[in-house]
Amino acid sequence: MTATRPLRLLVLCASARTGSVNRALAEAVVRRLAAAGAEADLTGLGDFPVPLYDADLQGREGVPEGAVRLAERLRDHDGLVIVSPEYNYSMPGSLKNLFDWVSRIKPWPTAGVDGLLMSASPGPVGGHRGLLALRVPLEGIGMRLHPTMFSLAKADKAFDASGGLADPGDGARLDAVLDGYLTVVEAVTRYPAARAALAARA
Ligand SMILES: Cc1cc2nc3c(=O)[nH]c(=O)nc-3n(C[C@H](O)[C@H](O)[C@H](O)COP(=O)(O)O)c2cc1C
């Protein structure tokens, strides 16, 4: 038996607001991933500062450090979980802008990255429409997005005093989505090594 390392997941929260419900969800996700035996690193857009995309600026100065740093973090991880608010039925412009910059790096740092999309909103739909919109650019730059997504409705009332999900039904739904995603990431991450080991034995 060969020892296997824990899966490494980057959790990117697209809201830095004080009291952000998406941040609360991202923190709950990190705790649940750790409980499942994975290593989860929580980051936010503030860790990857970039100006508004400007082709002339790119021509003069190249791709900004913030986008290069995200590309490096993607390389160091087995998957990317994005937890994002819905803005006007779509994704926050700041999130799209960051990935627009990342897409200027070739080959695409996002190509073949296994992604999982999540949202939280005080509203009744939980930001799900924003995730449907977010799939389009991310799949356009080669990400392999998990088919199932998680949206938390009425999120301003969904957390208990210790930051956990107050409704056990929400917790069970979140765990089911994470379990399905981890199964895929594990297969993608481990299978090439297993195949090489089998080939070496043959
Ligand atoms: C510009 C803007 C647009 C918004 N559009 C939506 C929307 O389409 N759907 C929705 O459910 N909430 C919408 N909201 C409300 C956000 O869901 C709410 O502010 C939420 O708390 C933002 O996430 P955060 O708490 O993680 O910052 C919008 C908020 C802003 C600032």
Descriptive notes:
This is NAD(P)H-dependent FMN reductase. Pfam families: FMN_red (PF03358). Residues 8-155 form the NADPH-dependent FMN reductase-like domain. One of its GO terms (cellular component) is cytosol. The chain has 6 helices and 6 strands; from the N terminus they run βαβααβαβαββα. β3, α4 (93-102) and β4 form a beta-alpha-beta unit. It has helices at 21-35, 55-61, 65-75, 93-102, 128-140, 168-201; strands at 8-13, 39-44, 79-83, 114-120, 144-145, 150-152. The chain has one domain: Flavodoxin domain (Rossmann fold), CATH 3.40.50.360. It has 202 residues and is α/β, with parallel strands linked by helices. The longest helix is centred in the last third of the chain and has 34 residues, at 168-201. The mean pLDDT is 96. Strands 1, 2, 3, 4, 5 and 6 form a 6-stranded parallel β-sheet that branches. The protein binds flavin mononucleotide. Residues 15, 17, 20-23, 85-89, 121-123, 125, 127 line the site of flavin mononucleotide.
